[in-house]
Amino acid sequence: MGAHFTRHVKRNLVAYIALLPMAAVVIFAYLGTLAWSVRLSFSSSRLLPKNDFVGLSQYVDLFDTPRWLTSLGNLVIIAFFFLLICFILGCLLAIFIDQNVRAESLFRTVFLYPYAMSFVVAGLIWQWILNPDLGIQQTMRGLGFSGFVLDWVVNPKMVLYAIILATVWHGSGLVMALLLAGLRGIDSEIWKATRIDGIPTWRVYLSIILPMLRPMIITSLVLLSISIIKMYDVVVAMTNGGPGTASEVPAKFIMDNLFERANIGLATAASTVMLITVMFIMAPVLYFQYFRKSGSSS
Amino acid sequence: MGMKQMVAVSAIALAATTGFAKAEEPLNAEVIHWWTSGGESAAIAVFADAFNAAGGKWVDNAVAGGSAARSAAINRIIGGDPSTAALFNTSRQYHEIIGEGLLNDIDAVATKNNWDKVLPEPIAKAVKVDGKYYAAPVNIHMPLWIWYSVAALNKAGIDKAPETLEDFFADLDKLKAAGITPLALGGQRWQENSLFSAVLTNVGGAKLWKSVYGDKDQAAIRSPEFRKVIETFVSLKPYVDQGSPGRNWNDTTALLIKDEAGFQVMGDWAKGEFKQAKKEIGKDYGCIPGLRPDSPYVLGGDVFVFPKTDDAEKIKAQHLLVEIMTSPEVQVKFNNLKGSIPIRADVDVSSLDACAQLGMKIMADPARQAPDASQMMEEFVYGSVQDIVTELWNTNMTVDQAVDRFDKALKG
Fold first, then answer.
1. Is it the case that residue A64 has pLDDT exceeding 90?
2. Which chain B residue has its CA at the smallest distance from A260's CA?
3. Are the beta carbons of A262 and B378 separated by less than 8 Å?
């Protein structure tokens, strides 16, 4: 085993050396800063990082802060609707394009285009469209529909759905592209077989094709989830958390406390909570993936 | 081989830069600031020119956005490579850095120029920590002016600016009846907070302002006077237009410039917008410092701090910067461009505009000077206060709930 190991190392020495910088970056820059952030969340740091230890008091403060609780609640609502709508819409778009429609590449580009746009730009565009003084409401009223109301961006009860609308517009193209790639990889023999069996098309998609696309579906869900967790720019561009605190999200809470409110302790506590949340959600997915993979390969 | 070349090149580059550094002028001053807009950069150029004329070399390091610039300055200080000077707001933003011993004091210059006498008390308090001056104030912004459009008021049949709160509300009603937006407000946290501060100073007066925000006195927070402040603030809601949420302050001032709205509560930097639109004080727009004869004149503004260094040349540059920035002539020239007023009363006010002159006159009375809220509490406490104000404005929070939240937040 020792000899085998040495031989293995010798043969791959260059590869290991090539990997070193990346490994160093991951260990020091990535994991190191992560550990440092977690450490700071147990300190009383305000403007400058401090090395004292105050136990869980930042976490107690955090969950006593109404704005943080609002942010968490908002994130749950956004995550639910965003994932659901984005996924269903992306699926339908992919299936639609897969019907060998005319001008397919045009549609593909149109649907994927929003994703090429930065969240800031997407947020600003939707902010203008939904702004009652500039956008659709003003246009419709100008056309004579004086009772027309579309005030999502300025209405505390609807503002979250305005953000969901913008993010779905932005993200569903990605789901479409991924699933379309998967659909194109489906063996045409399968379609022929189902046709011979006389199975309705919707049933084929639901029971045969989609399960076969599992890797693509997981990839798109993971990508979408990440964009939800780090959602910041679109909120800043569209509402800046307003009206009031109606559209605050955790990432913005962290940024505000870190840079504007000189409250490093609270900000790192909040980011640690986010990290733990992500780990809880992702761990089963990752574990399942790796477990399945190693199981099937042996 | 490529590696060797690289090393050689970097060695030459290093030698070149160090050689260059030695050849540089002695009084080199790198200044981090966030004054990037047209009027602001013109204003800071006054400092740069005066400093260069006095034998220094101003190295400009402008970072867009106040919090980004302050972060940059703090990171450089912690990293051990600080700039010569850095811009902060007249607040507590830099008090923690002083506590850590990371700033040089400028007591020598301050004593020489008699700052104890020259500076208004709230400003002196903000820059003097443990008996030593640590920051050079360069301007005074009063963040709570009430601006009005003369044409909009005339259209609503109002012929003179309100002087009391009752007049103000009566005028709001008249404007509303005339179909004009009575109160222009940009629905962003800090603007809503300015409006609340204006209500607090004009309804509660200087005493309540200082006891609630300064002393965090629980009796004052739970007093009927403070409840009245909250109620008055909430009662302003119907006078704001629907497009308010999220609107920038300058777009909001534009409503007054276009005579589409009557009043706006905003700092004296709003003058820049009026001036750019070629509007004249008195003819097109006006400024009201307060709605009671003893309304407190809140003193905000900006200061420069000077990071710790033992380098005698650098300290000399820091002291020269302070001398120049606070000298009477430079003060007038700078503040005229910045829209603020000078930090000292012993200057020639004749070149200032009418609103600034009015401000100088009020500020001359120590009884009317009041510190800005950010000078009376830590940033994170002020942040929580602003969260309450914005929720109060945008939800149906009751007065009792608001009082409870203020009480809790101000405890810190």
1. yes
2. B67
3. yes
Topology match between the domains B2-141+300-370 and B145-298+372-411: yes
Residue among A245, A259, A266 minimizing CB distance to B387: A245
Q: What is the pLDDT of residue A292?
A: 65
B188 CB near a chain A CB, below 8 Å?
A: yes
Q: Is the Cβ pair A244, B390 closer than 8 Å?
A: yes
Please give the Cα distance from B49 to B55 (Å, whole number).
Answer: 10
CATH class of the domain comprising A68-297: mainly alpha
Burial A99-122 (b: 16+ CB within 10 A, else e): eeeeeeeeebeebbebbeeebeeb
Its ipTM equals: 0.84
Q: Tell me how close the Cα of A45 comes to any Cα of chain B, in angstroms.
A: 10
Residue range A287-298, pLDDT digits in tens: 777 766 554 443
The pLDDT value given to residue A105:
87
* pLDDT(B293) > 50: yes
**B190 and chain A: CB distance < 8 Å anywhere?**
no
Asked: is B145-298+372-411 a CATH 3.90.230.10 domain? The reply is no
Query: How many Cα neighbours within 13 Å face the side chain of A270?
Result: 27
As a whole number of angstroms, the distance between CA A253 and CA A271 comes to 9
Query: Do residue A242 and residue B405 have CB atoms under 8 angstroms apart?
Result: no
To the nearest whole Å, the CA of A81 is away from the closest chain B CA by 24
